[in-house]
Amino acid sequence: PVITWARRFDGSYSHEGRLSSYKRPLLLFHDMNRLRAVLERSGAQLLYAGKAHPNNTAAKDEISRVVWHLGELKGAGINTAFVPNYNMETCRHLTAGSDIWLNTPRVPLEASGTSGMCAAMNGVPQAGTMDGWWVEGFNGRNGWMVGSEFSDDDTDSGGLYSIIEGFGTENAMSVGAIQTGATFNTHRMVNEYARNLYF
């Protein structure tokens, strides 16, 4: 399976100088030994894509750390890749070629999560935290809920490793994801706005 995390990086530094991000691109690397073992057993490939604002030093540092971790895994014989300059065209290809879409923001800071909706329309199930569109979108047949309403890196990363380890062909999950995409789209949203707000 191809496991994908693709977003704009939004890293920032705390007053103590610690790198943090509500999107948590580094969450999957929380326990590198376990991640390496899970990827080796499952034969999964790991794909990251993203870009940072030119003036956001923290976000650029975040990308550097992701690339470093991917390189470490690649050195252990695991297929990994980082796609730079993430944009709508890149997203179109990634959502069509992935098997699991990762969206693990720190609860409750996610506004929506449109890339996950796009992935669903392509039959890609999402592994996401209880935030953004996934709060309404998740139904148990279209992906996996990671963690709870309280974000914890130990718990959430452990949930991701279990999902990857248990992943099979997941045809039913793909069908469920496509059905979800039929509801979470701009056509329905605009019609709903027009019906409820303007008429």
Structural commentary:
This protein has 199 residues and is of the alpha/beta class. The protein has one domain: Glycogen Phosphorylase B (Rossmann fold), CATH 3.40.50.2000. It is 44% helix and 18% strand. The protein has eight helices and eight strands, in the order E-E-E-H-E-H-E-H-E-H-E-H-E-H-H-H. The chain has helices at 32-42, 57-75, 88-96, 114-121, 134-137, 153-165, 171-181, 186-198; strands at residues 2-8, 12-13, 19-20, 45-51, 80-84, 100-103, 126-129, 143-146. The chain has a six-stranded parallel β-sheet, with helices on both faces. The protein starts with a strand and ends with a helix.
Helicity range = 40-55%
Give a short account of the largest sheet: 6 strands, parallel
Are there runs of 5+ residues with pLDDT below 50, and where? none
CATH topology: Rossmann fold
**The CATH top-level class label:** Alpha Beta
What is the structure about, briefly put?
The chain has 199 residues and is an alpha/beta fold. The protein is 44% helix and 18% strand. A 6-stranded parallel sheet has the order 5-4-1-6-7-8, with helices on both faces.
